[in-house]
Amino acid sequence: MVSKLSQNWKYVIVILLFLGWSIGNFDRFFMNYAILGISKDLQLSTSQTGIVLSSFFAGYALMQIPGGWLADRFGFRKVIITALLAWSIFTIFSGMAWSFASLILIRFLFGLGEGSFFPSASKGIASWFPQNERSRAMSFMLTSGTIMGVITPIIGTQSMQTIGWRTIFYIAGAVGIIFVLLYMIFLKEQNSSTAEKVETTSKNKAPLRDVLKTPIIWNLFIAYFAIYAVQWGLMTWMPTYLVDARQLDLTSVGYISAIPAVAGIIAMLTSGYILDKLPEGKDKLIAAVFAVLTAVFLYLMAFAPNIAMFAVYQSIVTVFMSFNIVLIISAPLKMLSEEIVGTANGFINTGAQFAGVLTPMLIGFLVDAFDGSYTVAFIMLIMFALLCAGSLFLIRPKKEVAYLKKVES
C-alpha cells in the first residue's frame, strides 16, 4: 500500500516542483524585460544595468551550498516552502524599488530567498525517483525554465506597455504566496521517517570535502559555470541587444525571444529521456561536442545577416545548451548517494550562479568600453562555451565513480 502510494505520489511531487520553479523562473526572467523600463525610470547607465542584473545572482549563488545542506539535514520540504515564501515577498518588494541602491539590495535578497529551491528540489527528486528516472524527472522540472522563456517575453513586454513593471512584480509575488499554501498541503517527504533516515545515515555518508577531492565534481562545477555564463549572458542581455543593436520594438522583442525558448522546451524534455538511456561516459562526450557546436553557432549569431537567421542560430544554441544543462545537473543524482546529493548539487549549481553574477556585469562593461558594440561580448560567450567543452572532455567517469563509491562506503 505504501509502495503504491509512493509510486503515484512522486508524480505529484515533480509537478509541484515544476510549478514552483515556473513561478521562480518567471519572477527572475521578467527582470530581463522590466529592466528596459526600470533603467528609464531610475535613469540607470549600461554598467549600472549590468550590476542590477547581476545582484540577484550574488545572493542566489551564496545560498546554493547552504540550501543543499539544509535540505540534506532537515528535509527538502521545509527548505522549499521557506524559499518560495521568501522570494515571493522580495518579488513584491522589487515593484517598490525607488533607486539604484534599493534595487540592488532587493534583488540580492530575492536571490538569497530563491537560492535554496534548486538544490532542495534535487534532493526531492533523488528521494522520490529511482536512479534510471532521475534525468527525466530533472529535465521535466527544468523545462519550466524554457516554458517561462516562451511565456515571460510575451507577457512581460505586453504588460509593461499596459499595467507597468511594478504591477507585474506585485502580481507575481502574490501568486507565489498562494503556492506556498499549496506546498504546505501537498508537498511531502518520501515517508514519515525521512528525517530519521537522514540523521542515522549522516554518520556513514561521505563528507562533502571528500567528494570534492574527485576531479569530476570540479569538472562539472566548471562546465556548469561556463555553460550558464552563455545562458545568462544571452537571457539577461538579449532584450536590450535586440532593441539597441537590431532596432526592434518591444513587442517584436517579446516574440523573437520566445522562438529559441520553444526549441528549448523540446530539447530539455528530449535530453532527459536520452540521458537516461545513454551509457556512462558517452553522454559526457556528446555534451562536450555540443559545447563546441554552441561556440560555432554563437559566432554565427553575432554576425547573422538578418533577425530571422539570428533567431534560428539562437534556437540551435539553446538546443545544445539544454542537453548540457540536463546532463551536468542530473549527473550527481546518479553518481552520489541520496544523503549528500542536495549538498553536492548545491555546490555544482554555485558555479552556474557565479556565472550569473559575473556575465551580466561583464557584458555591460564591455558594451560601454567598446562604444555600444556587442561583438566582444559575443567573443566572451564563445570562449565560455569552449571552456565548458574542455571541462567535459577531461572527465574520466569510470575511475572517478569508483572513487566516489569508495569514499561513500
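(ticket continues) Second input and output from the same batch:
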Amino acid sequence: MIDVPAALAWAGAEVGASVQGCVRLHGGLTSRMLALRHADGSETVLRLMTNEPWRTHGAELTTRERDAQLAMAGTPVPAPTTLALDAEGAVAGVAAHLMTRLPGAPMTDVDGGSVRAMADLLSTVHAQWPAEPFRTYQSWAWPEKWVVPAWTRHPRAWERAFDVLAAPAPAYAPTFLHRDFGHRNLLWSDGAISGIVDWVETSTGPAWLDAAHAASNLAVMCATALGEDLLEAYAPLAPEPPHPYWLVMDAVGYLPPPGRPPMFRQADQLARLDDWLDHVIRRPSGGTRTPGP
C-alpha cells in the first residue's frame, strides 16, 4: 500500500510548512508526481515511485535524481533543487523524492524555434562535469527486443537496425547525460525553457544518445521532420560527429520486450516510430537530410 497522507505529512515537515494543496501532475511513466502547495506559500513537487518495474529500483532511481540535482546546482542547467529523499520508502511504502517546483509548463506545440532552444540547452547539459561521474549509460534496446514488429511497413529497416546493434558499440567521448532529455521533460515560460525535470536516468555516455532520444520523442509524438530538425540543430554544438549506432539504439529501444504491449498504443504513433526508424537507417552519418524513398 502507498500511504499518500503520510508522504504529504513528511513533505510538510521537511519544508517546515504543512501541505495545504495537492494536485497530480500529468505524465509520469514511472511515478506519481504531485504538485504541493505549502502553508507558507511555497510550492514543491513530490515524486512517489509507484509504477513497476521502476518501483523495484526506486531507491537507486530517486537517489540518482537527488545526486543529479545536487550536481546541477549552481550551473546554467535549470534543474529542480532537491529538498528531501526517502529512498527506501520508509514513510509512504515507496521511494519518495521531494524537490522544488520550477516555473513553466510543457510545450504542446513544438516548432523550429523551440527545437533550436532544445539543442542549445542540450549542449549546456553536456558541457557539465560533475565531480563524480554518473553510471555508464544503459541501452534500452535489449537483444530480447530485436524482433521485427508485426505492425511495421518497413521490415527490412528493422532487420538492418538489429544488424547495426549486433556490432560492437563505437568509441565515444564520455559525456554527462540527462539520458531522458526530450520535449516532454522540459518546462517553458515566456517562450524560453525554464526547467528540465526527471533526472532518474542520469548517466555518463555518448552525447549523441541524448540527442537521439530527444529526436525520437519529437519524431514519434510530433513529426519525423522535427526529429531531424533536432539532430541538425544539435550537430554543430556536439562534442563529436554523429554516429548512426546511437540513433538506431534509441529508436529500437522503443520496442517492447517480448510479450508486452508497445509503449505507444496509438496507431499513428506506431506509424511514426516505424517511419523514424526507417529514416534513421537511411540517414547518412554526416548529418544532412536524406530524400524520401
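Agent notes: Confidence is low (pLDDT under 50) at residues 286-293. The beta strands are 19-24, 32-38, 43-48, 82-86, 96-100, 175-177, 186-189, 192-196, 203-205. Closing as not reproducible unless the customer responds.
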